[in-house]
Specification:
The complex is a heterodimer. By secondary structure, chain A is of the alpha+beta class. Chain A is built from 6 helices and 6 strands, in the order E-E-E-E-E-E-H-H-H-H-H-H. In chain A, the strands form 2 sheets. A 3-stranded antiparallel beta sheet of chain A has the order 1-2-5, with no helix packed on it. In chain A, strands 3-4 form a two-stranded antiparallel ribbon. In chain A, a hairpin with a 7-residue loop joins strand 1 and strand 2. In chain A, helix 1 packs parallel to helix 4 and helix 4 packs across helix 5. Chain A is elongated and about 65 Å long. The two termini of chain A are 24 Å apart. By secondary structure, chain B is α+β, with helices and mostly antiparallel strands. Chain B is 27% helix and 34% strand. The chains are: A alpha+beta, B alpha+beta.
């Protein structure tokens, strides 16, 4: 879908040089919640300055931007958390062990795979476990010795794609 | 590099009339120097940041007026300073010269001391 009107909406008070034109912001990245780079995946026309890139938003535009950012954030985060969990499972960790590592309720990992959104703290714990599995399990097994065996049985990391996108 | 505005006599806009428009939600809020900063400080959504900016402008009094800027393209903007929860805040408002709509250009902790009619609003010590 192409939404590129280019219509001038107003002069830009942010830089005092450019004009804010109706622009489709699909593909732009913005901070949202705990993610500093959420790429907008939906079409949305907003006034964007042709010099500095700033925007001046009315109430409806602000709400619309929140909605598309939240939708894009959820899609990215769900994809990331599923990739992280699948990678951890391929390394030989069971769902119970992952839950134990992050001190999650039994069955929580299954819910994350089925579309529940992890909190920022849980996501970062999973990310840490994915990036440094040996070290993370060794450290946390000092608190919970049952995790020691899990660390010893880890398989070498496969070429599975990391969930960094 | 973008040019900066220079100071001109002011205030250019009637604060009460501006606030009446803000009260009616007839205002646009800039993302770069208002929404994005408030979002980070208050860990909130764009809509909540916008509501905060509106509330802050509605708290202003004529004594909070600091100075008026003329931007390179001729746009005039009034700058206000106010203590919010003990911290100096910088607010910049405009009536857009192109569409005539009121706008909140800046709403963030002050990066430098602001001399207002009621005295000096100290810098927050934070830079954004």
């Amino acid at each position: 879908m192409k939404l590129e009107s280019g219509r001038i909406v107003r002069s830009c008070g942010g830089c005092g040089e450019g004009m804010q034109r109706e622009t489709n912001v699909i593909g732009m990245t913005m901070a949202h919640r705990d993610d500093p780079r959420v790429r907008i995946l939906d079409d949305l026309l907003l006034p964007v300055c042709d010099v500095c890139g700033d925007m001046a938003l009315d109430e409806a535009q602000t709400i619309a931007l929140d909605v598309v950012l939240e939708r894009s954030y959820r899609r990215k985060r769900l994809r990331q958390q599923c990739a992280l969990i699948n990678d951890l499972r391929r390394m030989g960790l069971s769902q119970v062990q992952i839950e134990r590592f992050a001190y999650l309720s039994p069955g929580y990992i299954s819910k994350l795979r089925k579309g529940k959104l992890a909190s920022g703290a849980t996501f970062r714990l999973l990310y840490l476990l994915h990036e440094f599995p040996q070290e993370a399990l060794r450290a946390v097994s000092r608190l919970d010795p049952a995790l020691k065996a899990a660390g010893e049985k880890l398989k070498p990391r496969s070429s599975a794609a990391a969930a960094s996108g | 590099m973008l040019r900066k505005g220079g100071q001109v006599p002011g205030p250019a806009y009637d604060l009460a009339a501006f606030q009446a428009e803000v009260q009616k939600r007839n205002v646009h809020v800039y993302k770069g120097r208002a929404l994005d900063i408030i979002k980070v400080l208050r860990e909130c959504s764009q809509a909540e940041a916008r509501a905060f900016a509106r509330r802050t402008v509605l708290m202003l009094t004529p004594d909070d007026y600091a100075h008026t800027l003329k931007m390179p393209d001729g746009q005039i903007q009034d700058v206000y300073g106010r203590l919010i929860a003990g911290e100096g805040w910088y607010l910049k408002i405009e009536i857009n010269r192109y569409d005539g709509q009121p706008g909140i250009v800046s709403c963030h902790p002050a990066a430098y001391d602001l001399v207002t009619r009621s005295g000096v609003v100290p810098s927050s010590g934070r830079k954004f």
